[in-house]
C-alpha cells in the first residue's frame, strides 16, 4: 500500500475528522491508505460508476462486494443522493457508523450526535432500504431488498407476500410504508450496538 | 440405584412363597398358582419406581407457581430429596439409594449435555468463543489452584485442626471443586432470563470447563498415587500436554460423531419412523467413545450436538425433528429432576458425614471469593480485546452464577478412599457447597438480577423484519469489512459460511433439503404455520365456524379474539434449535412455550396471506413427508367411514327431494377405487378443514388430488375420477349437468365437490365439473389461474368439513 503518507498531518482535515468521528490517528491513517488504494485514478474521490460502461468503478476493486447480496446498496449508501463521488471525509464519516458505541460519552448539547450512536447506526440501516431517501420504506423498496436477500427459488408471489407481511408487522399507522420510527420500533429488541459494530484495526 | 436391601415387610411376604422364589435349586411341594417374584424384577422395577417418584415430586412442586417463582425448582427438588432420604433412612437405617458416579455419569448426565449441545445457538456461541474459552480454561485453573493452595495454607496455619491431607490432595480437592456445573447453571438460569451474551458465557464456560476438570482431576489423582517425590518437570509437562489432547481429542470425537449423524440422516428417508433414534444412540456413543479414550466426554457430546443440529434439522422429516426436540427435552428434564432428587437423598446418610467447621466454611468462602476475583480479573483483560465490552453488572452475575453441582459431587465420590483418607470430609464439603450454590444462590439469583437491573433477554417472538434485518446486518458488516480492507470477525464468519455451504452441505445435507435452505423464506413459513395453528385453534375453541364457512367475511381477528390468546395452543414450532436465532432468549426449558405467543394479533390480511401462501410452503416440504403405512391406512379408513356415513344421511334426505336418485351404491364403488390409489388423505382433509384457497402449486407431482374424489365420490361424478374412462362423462347426473361449465370457475372445484353433499342449492355450483379427465389437476394447475382462485366471492360459503381434522400434521 502506498506509504507516501506516513503521517496523519498530510491528510486534509485529519484532526477535524478524528474529533468528529472518534477514530484515532492510526485509524485515520489506515483508512486513508485504503481510500487511496480504492482511488485508482488518484483524483481524491471515489466514483460510483464508470460513466461509459456503467460498471461500478472504484468500489469494484473490492471484489467480494459483488458476492454480497446487499453490496450495491452499501456502495450507494456512501454516496449522498445525487452525488456521484465521495471524498475521503465522507468515506470516513460513513465508516464511523460502524465503530463500537462508546459507553460513557459525554457531550454537550451543542455537539451533534456521534456517528456511532445507536440512532445513527439505525439510520444507516434504514438507508439500506430507503434508497430514495424519502424517509419511508415503500413496498417497492422493501421488495428490492428482500429480492436481493432471498434465493432465486422464491417466486415473485412468495416475495410479495413476505413483503406484505413484513410491512403489516411493522407498519403502525397503516400508510403502507415503514417510516423510520416504525423501523426503529420493530427493532427495539435488537441489540444494535452488538450487531452493527466492527473492529477497526490500527 | 445400584444396590438395595429388601424392605422389612417384603421379607414376610416373600417367605410365604419362598418355595418357588428362587427357581432352580429349590424344592417345590406343589404347583404355585401365583408367585411373588420380587428378585426377578428388582432392578428394573426400582429404576422405574424412582423415575416415577422423581416425576411425581416435580409434579407436586410445580403445582404452585408462587413457590416456584421464588425458589428455583432445583432447590425444591433437593428438599424433596431430603424428605425422601429421611423416609428411607428411617425405614432402613441405612441409605440404600445413593447417587452413584456410574449412574450419574453414564445414565443421567449425557442426555442433559446432548440437549444443551443440540439447542445451542451456534452463532452466538462461536461469536463469544474467545471469552468462553478464557473463562473455561484459565478461570477453572485459577479456581482450582487458588482453592487448593489457600486451603493448604490454612491447614498449615492450623485453621482446620488435624487433617491427614497433603498439598497434592488439596489440589485434587480444588480441581474437583473448581468446575462450574452445567446442570446447575441450566437449572438456575432458565428461570432468570438474562441477556443472551451473559447466559452464553456462563453456560458455555460450564460446558467447556469439563475439558479442564477432567485433566486436572486425573493429573492430580495420578500425582497423589505417585506420591510427591515422583513429580518432576516431565510429569508436569505431560499434564499440560494431556490437557490439549483431552480437550481437542474430545471435541474431535464429538465432531466426527456429529458428521456421522448428519450423514446418516441423509439416507434415512425410508425409515423415518426410527430416524430420531439414531440421533440419540450416536450421541450417546460419542459420549462413551470419548470416555473410553479417556478424553473429555462432555466436550465430545456437546460438539456432537452442535455440529449436527443444522444438518439433521434439514435432513429429517419435520415430524422427526419435532420428535428429537421433544424427546431431548423430556430426557434432559427428567434426568435433571432425578439428579437433584438424589442429591438430596444422598445427603441423608450418616456414614459420609464428617464435619470440620474450618474446612467447610473456608471452602465455601474461598469458592465464592476466588470466583469473583477470577471473573473480574479475566474480564478486565478480555474487555481490552472485545468489540463490545462485558459490563460490570454482567460480571457480577457471572461470578455469582458460578454454581457447583452434581459433577463435583460425582467426582468427589469417585475418589479412592485408600489414597485419600479424608474422602468423606471432601464428599461432605462438596455436598454443602452444592447445596449452598444451588439453593441459596439459586433463590437469590432472581432478586439479584432484578435489583441490579441486568439486561434481560428479549421475550416474545420476532417479527419478520427483525429476522430479515438480522441477516441484513450480517451482510452489511461483511461488506464494510471488505470495503475498509480488513479481515475481521465477520469476514472469517463469511468465509466459513461460504466454505460450509459449498462443501459441507453438499455432503451432509440431502439434495432436496439443500434446495429449501432459504433462510428468510423458512422464517416466513414458520411464522405462517404458527399463525395458522393459532387461527384454527382459536376458531375451533370459539366454536365459530364462521371462518370456515365464510371466506369473504372480513373477520376482525383482533376484535374477536382479543384477550383470549393466552389460551391458544402453545407454539410447538418454537424453534429452539435454530442456529440463526441470536435474539430470543436462550432458554433451554420446555416451558418456554408458555412464554411465547404474545405477539400482537395480526390483521386479517395475514389470514389471506396464509391462504395464499402457506400451502405453497408446505408443498415445498411435501416431498419429504412419508408416513408410516400405519398412519395412512388409519386416516384413510376413518375418513372414509365418516364420510360414508355422512353421505348416506345426507343423500337419504335428498331422496325425497326433487333431485331424485341418491346414488348410494356409487359411493362405495368409487371409494373402493380410491383405496387403491396412493393417498395423502389426512393432509388433504386437513387442507379442507383449514379451507385454504386453492392457490396450490403443482410442484410436486404426487399431490393427492385423489382425495378430493373421495369427497366428490358421493356425487358419483365420474368426471372427477382421474383414472376413469373419459367416456364415463356421459353418466353425469342430470342436476350436475345443469350447472354452467364455466372455465373461470375451474379453480374452486375442490370446494364445490365438498359442498355438494350438504345442500341441494350447492349442487348447482358444481360448476367446476371439469368434464375433461384432467380436470382433477385443475386446481393444482394453480399457476395460471392463480388470479381466478381469488374469486372467493363467487363461491357460496363452504360447508363444515366432512371429517374431524386429524391433528397429526401442523
TrEMBL record, chain B:
It catalyses: Na(+)(in) + H(+)(out) = Na(+)(out) + H(+)(in). This is Sodium/hydrogen exchanger. It comes from the Eukaryota. NCBIfam families: b_cpa1 (TIGR00840). The gene is LOC127358411. Keywords: Antiport, Cell membrane, Endosome, Ion transport, Membrane, Phosphoprotein, Signal, Sodium, Sodium transport, Transmembrane, Transmembrane helix, Transport. It is found in: Apical cell membrane; Early endosome membrane; Recycling endosome membrane. One of its GO terms (molecular function) is sodium:proton antiporter activity.
